[in-house]
Amino acid sequence: MAAQVKAGVKKVNLEVGDSKFEFHVSIKEFNALQNEMLPNNKTTPSENFLMDTVQGGDEKKQELLELVESGYALELANLVSNQFKPDLKITVKK
Asked: Looking at the whole model, is its pTM more than 0.70?
């Protein structure tokens, strides 16, 4: 699902219904999402993250905006950000 585009940037492709979206995510966008998330403010950072990273110009942004305005911002942002930072096995040894 995620592939390298250039150093430090991952390409994430999502299919949502009949629509296909491509996102280019760097550590800058990922960190901005993490830093802006607050217990009472999750939707706006998610929307900003998606709009900043979606590829395809205004047409794709408008298509994505329709999904965001239908309440899918958090779910989509989580899917995209989880592909940027895949699972890492960490073991604490005593």
From this structure: yes
φ, ψ at 29 (rounded to 5°): -70, -40
Handedness of CA 17, 51, 5, 86 (dihedral sign): negative
pLDDT in tens, 36-80: 998 888 999 999 999 999 999 999 999 999 999 999 999 999 999
Under 8 Å between Cβ of 23 and 50: yes
73, amino acid identity: A
**36-45: b or e for each residue (b if 16 or more CB lie within 10 Å)?**
ebeeeebeeb
d(C-alpha 71, C-alpha 30), whole Å: 21
* Cα–Cα distance for residue pair 81/2, rounded to 1 Å: 10
Task: Report how far residue 9's alpha carbon sits from residue 28's, in angstroms, rounded to the nearest whole number.
Answer: 10
